[in-house]
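Lab notebook, design round three. We kept the backbone fixed and only want residue identities now. Task for the bench partner: fill in a sequence for the structure below.
Input structure tokens:
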């Protein structure tokens, strides 16, 4: 199998410059462990903070080296969870969607690299001030929560900033990356590796309902939308400017432009939404995937995904260089 060595693989002692995104609910211990076993690094999704769930997922990962990620504004409401996870000696701790500074000292004291996912240049500067070892430049193509920047221009802009001001800080690209072409492109843009969400969401180890997987396999990249409606239905008070990319389904169509009406009807709609999600109803609740769904045609193991991405990236890099006359 091909190997693509970068500063990321050297610093984290992994074979391939691929991390799995710590997807809330979907990114459990089995998925994270499978990515690590395949030569990448898997991150467990700490999500909105559930002690019992975190215990279950670290148990599912077993002795395999994994990391963990949190939704930062939610972690601030349950800060004890950080210490709980650090007891597992994770390979990395990722923070997204909020100021990492209140948690940076505890993470540094534990000797754990801090990864900060960023959606703007202001976020990048905030993360650097907090001592981030790794910056994730997340484009709006990504599934789940994010904001407005496009991956293609955002990644090299962040790469330039880091080269000028913090050259030892590593950079990962995220948003719309699902195959070897995406990895090769990210490396050419100046990233040290990639953080992959939707493609690993569409794997056998992910904690995702089979009906949701089927929707993603059938979808094109056009069939997603950014919205606040799923968060309203789940009674999650997400801060601005973040919203969530999900499938453009019947739930979205029903409530589009009617945020206030959904809030007014929440006592009935919240339990209905939860029931639909738990049942895997792909029309009654959001299915969380990104534009990369248009690049997905099957549900393989996470290990197969890593192998495919690396092999294709190596081929693309070699063939691309051969085609060009410099």
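Proposed sequence:
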């Amino acid at each position: 199998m091909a190997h693509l060595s970068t500063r990321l693989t050297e610093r984290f002692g992994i074979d391939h410059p691929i991390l799995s995104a710590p997807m809330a609910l979907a990114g459990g211990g089995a998925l994270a462990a499978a990515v690590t076993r395949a030569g990448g690094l898997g991150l467990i999704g700490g999500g909105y903070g559930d002690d019992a769930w975190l215990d279950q997922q670290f148990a599912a990962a077993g002795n395999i080296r994994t990391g963990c990620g949190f939704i930062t504004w939610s972690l601030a409401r349950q800060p004890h969870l950080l210490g709980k996870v650090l007891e597992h000696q994770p390979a990395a701790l990722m923070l997204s969607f909020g100021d990492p500074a209140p948690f940076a000292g505890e993470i540094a004291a534990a000797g754990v690299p801090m990864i900060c996912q960023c959606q703007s240049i202001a976020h990048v500067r905030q993360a650097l001030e907090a001592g981030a070892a790794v910056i994730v430049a997340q484009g709006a193509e990504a599934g789940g929560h994010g904001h407005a920047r496009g991956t293609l221009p955002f990644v090299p802009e962040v790469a330039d900033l880091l080269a000028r001001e913090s050259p030892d800080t590593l950079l990962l690209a995220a948003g719309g990356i699902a195959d070897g072409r995406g990895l090769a492109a990210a490396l050419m843009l100046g990233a040290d590796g990639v953080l992959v969400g939707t493609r690993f969401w569409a794997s056998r180890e992910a904690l995702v309902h089979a009906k949701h997987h089927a929707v993603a396999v059938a979808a094109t990249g056009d069939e997603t939308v950014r919205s606040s409606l799923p968060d309203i239905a789940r009674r999650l008070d997400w801060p601005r400017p973040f919203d969530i990319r999900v499938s453009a389904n019947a739930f979205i169509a029903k409530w589009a432009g009617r945020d206030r009406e959904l809030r007014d009807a929440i006592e009935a709609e919240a339990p209905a939404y939860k029931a639909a999600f738990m049942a895997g109803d792909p029309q009654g609740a959001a299915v969380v995937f990104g534009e990369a769904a248009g690049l997905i045609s099957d549900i393989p193991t996470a290990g197969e995904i890593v192998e495919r991405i690396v092999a294709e990236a190596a081929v693309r890099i070699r063939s691309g260089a051969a085609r060009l006359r410099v």
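Keep this in mind before ordering anything: The CA atoms of residues 39 and 172 lie 16 Å apart.
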